[in-house]
Write a structure and sequence with these properties.
Length: 217
C-alpha cells in the first residue's frame, strides 16, 4: 500500500494527522505493508522571508480575532495532546515560508533509507510547533536534518545550491491538479483520499477497508 501524505510543515493539523496516522500504522505493522511518502504543499507560497506575525496573518487571511485565534490554538493543543504531539503554547509567534523545508524533504526522500524522509518531517514539525523555531532558517533546517539522521553537511549543500526547487514546484502543481486544496491530505494508492487531522481509529478503519478492497480486486 502506498500512502502519499500531502502537507506543509507550518500546518498544525498536519502534525496532528501525521501523529495519528503513525499510531494507526504501528497497529497495522505486520498486517499491511505500507510505503509512506511525503509530498509538498505550501499554505503560504508567497510568504516573505522574514515571515509574518501569526495573529496578523490569521486575521488578514481568515478574518479571525486574536481571541478566536487563541481559542483555536487551544483546540489544536488539546487535539495534539490526545494523539501524542506537543504544541508548546506561545512558542510559535510567526508564520514562515516553507519552500526550503520542502526542498530538503524532497532530498531526504531520495535517500536509500526511506525512513529518513519521515524522520525529517517529524523533526521539522517538532522544531516549529514544539520548539518555536523558524523552519525557513537554514540553521534550523540543517539541525533538523541531523536530528533525523541525515548528513548535515549534505543538507547544507542542498540548501545553498537551490537544488530540487523545480522538482518541488512540479510536485506541488501535480497534487493541486489532482484536486488537493487543503492539508493534510492522505492519498492511498493514488485512488483514495482522507482529509484533515483525523483520529487514529479513522485512519485504521479506512486503511483496513482499502486493503480489503484491494485484495478483492
Amino acid at each position: 500500500m502506498k500512502i502519499d501524505f500531502v502537507s506543509d510543515v507550518s500546518c498544525p493539523w498536519c502534525a496532528i494527522g501525521l501523529t495519528a496516522l503513525e499510531t494507526a500504522l504501528a497497529e497495522l505493522e505486520g498486517e499491511i505493508a505500507v510505503e509512506l511518502h511525503f509530498q509538498p504543499f505550501e499554505l503560504n507560497p508567497d510568504m516573505v522571508a522574514e515571515g509574518e506575525d501569526i495573529d496578523e496573518h490569521l486575521s488578514r487571511k481568515y478574518g479571525t480575532t486574536p481571541a478566536q485565534n487563541a481559542a483555536n490554538r487551544e483546540t489544536i493543543r488539546s487535539r495534539g495532546e490526545q494523539v501524542g504531539f506537543t504544541f508548546t503554547m506561545g512558542a510559535r509567534t510567526r508564520i514562515y515560508n516553507t519552500f526550503d523545508a520542502h526542498r530538503l524533504l524532497h532530498w531526504a526522500g531520495l535517500q536509500p533509507d526511506a525512513s529518513l524522509q519521515h524522520a525529517l518531517k517529524r523533526a521539522l514539525l517538532q522544531a516549529y510547533f514544539t520548539d518555536g523555531k523558524n523552519p525557513s532558517d537554514p540553521a534550523v533546517l540543517i539541525e533538523a536534518a541531523a536530528v533525523a539522521g541525515l548528513d548535515p553537511e549534505a543538507a547544507r549543500e542542498v540548501l545553498a545550491s537551490g537544488e530540487y526547487a523545480d522538482e518541488v514546484r512540479e510536485a506541488e502543481h501535480y497534487w493541486q491538479a489532482q484536486g488537493i486544496r487543503a492539508v493534510p491530505s492522505v492519498v492511498v494508492n493514488h485512488r483514495h483520499l482522507l482529509q484533515g487531522g483525523q483520529p487514529p481509529e479513522v485512519y485504521l478503519q479506512a486503511l483496513r477497508q482499502i486493503a480489503a478492497e484491494s485484495g478483492a480486486d
